[in-house]
Specification:
About 50% of the residues lie in helices and about 10% in strands. The protein has helices at about 1-15, 20-35, 45-55, 60-80, 85-90, 105-115, 130-135, 140-150, 155-160, 170-175, 185-195, 230-235, 245-260, 270, 345-360, 375-380, 385-390, 395-410, 420-425, 445-455, 460-475, 485-500, 505-520, 525-535; strands at about 100, 120-125, 195-200, 280, 285-290, 305-310, 315-325, 330-335, 365, 395, 430-435.
């Protein structure tokens, strides 16, 4: 029986990516055969589960999708019935009712502890750089500070304080929540503890297959879209973002957050999402994209870090973000492993379409990690050429020339593949997609100019530079209104910017004042002010 299940899954592996007429028939036949086969407790069940997830995202017919959904339910029942045996075998696999053990931030842990469909607890401390007592000296009642200062290891201190095992993670999170007013200090302490969290789901909702949008429409595939006019796609009008109901928005946020929890990962825009900034776009071929910014206290200076989650038929299929400053953006993409045999190029171009049009960017740059720097998989897959195909070119002119020469070889010699040495050379430069003839001002340009100002005009005294730049900015504009703490942070940034560039033009200064009020609360308005500033 074991060989029977293994053989059938191996056979499905050969057919599930095929969308020609013969392949579609073979895929359905192979799937039907497995539905009659009992599951086995083996690693091969993970492979089968991943195939089923792909087929939910790329179904070819209602009949096929129906079989897949039934198999996912059968798989779920099997794992639930054998839960104790599955725990170690399928840990961190994304299968239903199996545990996740990973490191998460303080804020993410606080969210996880509130989930009604999971038991969340402390798994342990690994490679800490700070012991718990060092952090708790700043939070515990004074009478207990002596215990925290006694030099105990983190797990020993929890015993000294009589914290039950099931409550230890909650205790740590509660204590460090007292430092919420200084979030980066809080993060320093929590990250230093080396906390590992264990999540035991009580519902299939916290699994790869069932963490999906409840309101998504299904698109059926007669083929996988590999060839298309990417320029036309990127420039095709973006639909207005959807007006979601409260329930739909709640489902969307939950799925976005859980998508990375399942992978044991985080991004700042997800962990620190500002729900007010959430926008959801329904696009083509079953693709939809959610974009979102961060809460004011977590925002970056001057630029806006806008995250995204891309969905395929309701399943999270890719995540990442863009660092936007006027017409320029730095962009990163991560396609979930389950979907790497699908429409990766189409996915990339849909994301470029969203960012280009939602924020009116004309220049998109990608850093070398995405195509191979310290990333062997990127080199092996020739990821550089994936981006090159869609118009990205090396920023470095000598590497751009090398890429042109390599392109000629690739077209002329059918068997030719760029050697690893050449692909590694390409990682010496960023690559960029430029929709205009000029390279726009980047946030790094402004940061460099500000550093030069501080070192030259203020002799390296950063406190003096901030104070004097703010004073000068307020004096020029006659600013007297009281700002909140988030607006004050933006004031510091634009005042230094105005000082460094000796900005005197009234129209530009007024736009900068607008930025002070817009940046903490309104991504779109802030971005438009930047665009107007650089055009004025």
């Amino acid at each position: 029986m074991k060989g029977s299940f293994n053989t059938k899954v191996a056979k499905l592996k050969l057919s599930y990516l095929k969308f020609d007429e013969e392949g579609l028939i073979q895929k359905l036949t192979d799937l039907k055969e497995i539905t009659k086969t009992p599951f086995l407790l083996s690693k091969l069940l993970i492979d089968y589960y991943e195939i089923l997830i792909f087929l939910v995202a790329y179904p070819s017919s209602k009949n096929e999708l129906g079989l897949v959904e039934k198999e996912l339910k059968r798989c779920t029942s099997f794992i639930k019935k054998n839960k104790s045996k599955c725990a170690d075998l399928y840990s961190n696999s994304g299968l239903p009712f199996t545990p996740y053990i990973s490191r998460y931030s303080h804020d993410c842990n606080c969210r996880l502890l509130s989930l009604p469909y999971a038991d969340v607890s402390l798994n342990g401390f690994e490679n800490p750089t700070i012991e718990l007592g060092e952090a708790l000296k700043h939070t515990l009642p004074i009478i207990e500070v002596s215990d925290a200062s006694a030099g105990w290891k983190s797990n020993e201190l929890l015993d000294v304080l009589n914290i039950p095992a099931r409550s230890q993670l909650q205790f740590i999170c509660n204590e460090l929540s007292k430092l919420n007013e200084t979030p980066f200090i809080k993060d320093h302490f929590f990250d230093g503890l080396g906390v590992y969290t264990e999540i035991n789901p009580k519902s299939p909702a916290l699994s790869k297959a069932f963490n999906r949008l409840s309101f998504a429409q299904t698109f059926f595939h007669s083929s996988i879209l590999k060839k298309f006019d990417f320029n036309s796609l990127i420039n095709s009008p973006l639909p207005t973002h959807s007006n979601l109901s409260t329930k739909e928005k709640s489902n969307l946020i939950s799925v976005i957050e859980n998508s990375l929890t399942i992978l044991g990962r985080e991004t700042d825009p997800i962990t620190y999402m500002d729900n007010r900034s959430l926008r959801y776009y329904e696009l083509d071929h079953g693709i939809s994209v959610a974009i979102y910014g961060m809460t004011p206290e977590r925002q970056l200076p001057l630029e806006s870090y806008i995250g995204y989650t891309l969905f395929k038929n309701g399943l999270p299929a890719a995540y990442g973000g863009a660092w936007i400053f006027g017409e320029a953006a730095y962009f990163g993409i991560n396609i979930f492993e389950s979907f790497r045999g699908g429409e990766s190029g189409f996915v990339l171009c849909q994301l470029l379409r969203v960012y280009r049009q939602a924020f009116k960017v004309n220049y998109i740059e990608v850093e070398p990690y995405q195509y191979g720097l310290n990333n062997p998989e990127g080199i092996q897959s020739g990821a550089f050429w994936f981006y090159y195909r869609f118009g990205f070119r090396p920023v470095d002119k000598s590497l751009a020339t090398l890429a042109e020469k390599e392109t000629i070889k690739l077209y002329k010699v059918q068997w030719y593949r760029s050697p690893e040495k050449t692909l590694l050379r390409f990682t010496e430069s960023n690559i960029a997609l430029n929709f205009s003839k000029k390279t726009p001002v980047k946030v790094q340009d402004v940061a460099l100019k500000i550093s030069q100002l501080i070192n030259k005009k203020y002799k390296g005294d950063r406190i003096l530079a901030v104070a004097k730049s703010k004073e000068l900015f307020k004096k020029i504009l006659g600013l007297s209104s009281t700002l909140n703490k988030d607006q004050e942070k933006v004031l510091e940034q634009v005042a230094l910017w105005a000082d460094a560039y000796q900005i005197k033009k009234s129209s530009q200064l007024k736009l900068m004042v607008g930025m002070i009020y817009a940046k903490p609360d309104n991504i779109e308005e802030y971005q438009q002010l930047l665009l107007d500033f650089f055009k004025s």
